[in-house]
Design brief:
By secondary structure, this protein is of the alpha+beta class. It has a single domain (about 10-120), classed as Nonspecific Lipid-transfer Protein, Chain A. Helix content is about 40%, strand content about 15%. The chain has 4 helices and 4 strands. It has helices at about 10-25, 30-50, 85-90, 100-105; strands spanning about 55-60, 60-65, 80, 110. The chain has a 4-stranded mixed β-sheet, covered by helices on one side. Strand 1 and strand 2 form a beta hairpin. Helix 1 packs across helix 2 (about 30-50) and helix 2 packs across helix 3 (about 85-90). The protein is globular and about 40 Å long. It starts with 8 loop residues before the first helix and ends in a 16-residue tail after the last strand. InterPro entries: SCP2_sterol-bd_dom_sf, SCP_3.
Length: about 130
């Protein structure tokens, strides 16, 4: 079943590209652009890795469920991944890898299915 997208692809890619350019030059990305880039990439992950067994949280911008497996219906899911927006976008664009992100101490992953390394990067930017 296809996910319902809230951010159209051109808008999402533009926001992600702006973030990538700013990150590459040490610039700061505006909150609205950062939020759009995060939400777009969460939608992209959910469309490529459909399912409901892992919850990916990027506070305060968004959350999605992905990866096939048992579905949870109440309470905190058994498989949760949470990290800051900048780290998420670095993973999504291939600027950092899963192992490095885990070692940073900013990525919190719990559960047997919480390793997203097989699904990253989603969209590579230099």
């Amino acid at each position: 079943m296809a996910i319902k997208r809230r951010i159209d692809e051109p808008t999402g890619r533009t926001a992600l590209r702006e973030w990538a350019q700013n990150a590459g030059t040490g610039g700061k990305t505006g909150r609205s652009t950062l939020a759009t880039a995060v939400r777009f990439t969460l939608e992209e992950l959910a469309s490529r890795a459909e399912g409901n067994s892992v919850e990916v949280r990027i506070p305060p911008f968004g959350v999605t469920q992905c990866i096939e497996g048992p579905r949870h219906t109440r309470g905190t899911p058994p498989n949760v991944v949470e990290m800051p927006a900048e780290l998420w976008l670095s993973l999504v664009t291939g600027r950092t890898d899963w192992a490095t992100a885990v070692q940073s101490g900013q990525l919190h992953a719990s559960g047997l299915r919480a390793d997203l390394s097989a699904h990253l990067p989603l969209i590579e930017y230099p």
